[in-house]
């Protein structure tokens, strides 16, 4: 198999070239809500334009907020050697700012943990198309290294552009999640300007999509047909809902903090679903151990991370039957219902 000529946007299933990822992420949605009013402005009578401009500026000033996020030197991390090996070659692409966050940043990783990065592309600093293509291929190589560490990791890199930080959509990656991230390369501070209304709309889409897929996978849990790849996705969705709900209700919590405070966000009944997911995550090493050598062996045959994930999703072994039987499906349904209610508030 040959190296893929594309990277996969972490929030979509469509392969896109690096040149396309330089656009505001995801797509141009974050900009459209501002482009459209100004298009309409062209057709307004001259006497109304100054009034429109004044109203628009007041709305923008009230809705947009500035945030500064601090990161840490990679030398401060006990995992610096391992991370530098994973991101070997990053110095060839100075137009990429690379940060590692989550459990790899605070050294709390478990067998369940993904390797989560956040990459900011300085599109104006890319010297030519060849440099962009080289970066794209290198990012695929790094993504494949992720897969060899965890053959069940569902996602690759998380991208945004430096330009889009001025109109940042927090639903793509909450900026709180980047606080304290390990800096592989780039500025020590990340400055963003984000819109509450745009973020809220995107969050609602995220919550609705998560609930829909959660309901689909619950049927596979009920029938006992879910595999390890799907189960990891299932557990991950249960554990991300507290962070989504916290963010949607105006609370600035990262994923870990939201899980710890889930009792304040959900009922006791729904909280049992989060408890089950947390226990399964903590027991992941034991559950996966009989299959791990085979999964790592498969991963060595792939060079394209997207082809590998497609294969892993289809070929992963069935999940442990005993643990499936303990799944509190009524509680998971209740968690979905309470999350759904936030969409109607």
Can you tell me about this structure?
This protein has 345 residues and is of the alpha/beta class. The chain folds into two domains: 7-27 and 66-194, no CATH class; 198-343. It has helices at 18-21, 29-41, 46-63, 80-86, 103-106, 129-149, 196-223, 228-248, 255-260, 262-265, 268-282, 284-299, 305-315, 321-325, 329-343; strands at residues 7-8, 15-16, 64-73, 96-101, 116-121, 159-161, 181-185, 189-195. Helix 7 (196-223) runs antiparallel to helix 15, helix 8 runs parallel beside helix 15 (329-343) and helix 11 (268-282) crosses helix 15. The radius of gyration is 21 Å and the shape is globular. The model is unreliable at 1-17, 19-53 and 55-59 (pLDDT under 50).
Topology:
Elements: E1 7-8, E2 15-16, H1 18-21, H2 29-41, H3 46-63, E3 64-73, H4 80-86, E4 96-101, H5 103-106, E5 116-121, H6 129-149, E6 159-161, E7 181-185, E8 189-195, H7 196-223, H8 228-248, H9 255-260, H10 262-265, H11 268-282, H12 284-299, H13 305-315, H14 321-325, H15 329-343
Parallel strand pairs: 3-7, 5-6
Antiparallel strand pairs: 1-2, 3-8, 4-5, 4-7
Shape: globular
| Number of distinct helices | 15
The residue fraction in helices comes out at: 40-55%
Give the terminus-to-terminus CA distance.
Answer: 49 Å
Strand order of the largest sheet: 6-5-4-7-3-8
Strand content: 5-15%
Mean pLDDT across every amino acid position: 83
Short note summarizing the structure:
The protein has 345 residues and is an alpha/beta fold. The chain contains 15 helices and eight strands.
């Amino acid at each position: 198999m040959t190296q893929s000529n594309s990277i996969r946007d972490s929030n979509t299933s469509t392969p896109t070239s690096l040149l396309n990822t330089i656009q505001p992420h995801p797509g141009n949605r974050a900009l459209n809500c501002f482009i459209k009013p100004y298009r309409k402005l062209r057709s307004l009578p001259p006497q109304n334009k100054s009034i429109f401009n004044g109203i628009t500026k007041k709305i923008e000033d009230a809705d947009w907020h500035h945030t500064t996020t601090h990161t840490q030197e990679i030398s401060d991390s006990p995992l610096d050697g391992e991370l530098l090996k994973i991101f070997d070659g990053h110095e060839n692409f100075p137009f990429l700012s690379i940060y590692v966050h989550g459990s790899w940043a605070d050294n709390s990783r478990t067998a369940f943990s993904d390797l989560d990065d956040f990459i900011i592309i300085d599109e104006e600093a890319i010297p030519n198309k060849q440099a962009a293509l080289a970066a794209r291929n290198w990012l695929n190589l790094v993504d494949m290294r992720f897969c060899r560490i965890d053959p069940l990791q569902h996602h690759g890199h998380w991208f945004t552009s430096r330009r889009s930080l001025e109109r940042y959509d927090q639903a793509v990656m909450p900026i709180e999640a980047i606080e304290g991230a390990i800096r592989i390369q780039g500025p020590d501070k990340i400055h963003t300007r984000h819109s509450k209304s745009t973020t809220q709309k995107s969050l609602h889409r995220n919550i609705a999509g998560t609930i829909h897929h959660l309901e689909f996978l619950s049927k596979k849990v009920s029938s006992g047909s879910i595999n390890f790849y799907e189960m990891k996705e299932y557990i991950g969705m249960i554990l991300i809902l507290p962070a989504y709900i916290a963010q949607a209700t105006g609370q600035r919590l990262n994923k870990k903090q939201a899980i710890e405070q889930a009792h304040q966000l959900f009922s006791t009944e729904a909280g049992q679903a989060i408890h089950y997911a947390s226990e399964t995550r903590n027991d992941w090493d034991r559950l996966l151990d009989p299959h791990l050598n085979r999964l790592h062996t498969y991963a060595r045959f792939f060079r394209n991370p997207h082809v590998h994930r497609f294969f892993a999703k289809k070929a992963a072994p069935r999940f442990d039957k005993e643990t499936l039987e303990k799944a509190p499906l009524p509680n998971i349904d209740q968690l979905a219902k309470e999350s759904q209610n936030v969409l109607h508030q």
